[in-house]
Write a structure and sequence with these properties.
The protein is mostly beta strands. It has strands at 4-7, 10-12, 18-24, 31-39, 46-52, 57-59, 67-72, 77-82, 91-100, 104-108, 112-116. The chain is 0% helix and 55% strand.
Length: 118
């Protein structure tokens, strides 16, 4: 069974930076995409950034120019560099791995808390 291990969350001041990382705990093949979602209390989970196997990326409009997603394909590790953080970025950030083999299957991390506050 595959588990996604996340790290890098924490408390930062507005304008600060954090880098999140996520990697599967076991071997996995057929990875199509890895990305980050976030959910604040009382709000729906939203896509933040996704990187596909071909290298293309998608970003939420609210984080464009501030966040950068990258992936180490050899280690199947995905990173999210978050710069110029704002209080509205405060949320639990979840890593997602999308596997496409005979059928699609998504793996989710446990979530890591990011709090931006002065």
């Amino acid at each position: 069974q595959v588990q996604l291990v996340e790290s890098g969350g924490g408390l930062v001041q507005p304008g600060g930076s954090l880098r999140l990382s996520c990697a599967p705990s076991g071997s996995i093949f057929g990875i199509n995409a890895m990305g980050w979602y976030r959910q604040a209390p009382g709000k729906q989970r939203e896509m933040v950034a996704t990187v596909f196997s071909g290298g293309s990326t998608n970003y939420a409009n609210s984080v464009k120019g501030r966040f950068t997603i990258s992936r180490d394909n050899a280690k199947n590790t995905v990173f999210l560099q978050m710069n110029t953080l704002k209080p509205e970025d405060t949320a639990v950030y979840y890593c997602k791995l999308s596997q496409w083999t005979d059928r699609a299957y998504d793996y989710w991390g446990q979530g890591t808390q990011v709090t931006v506050s002065s």
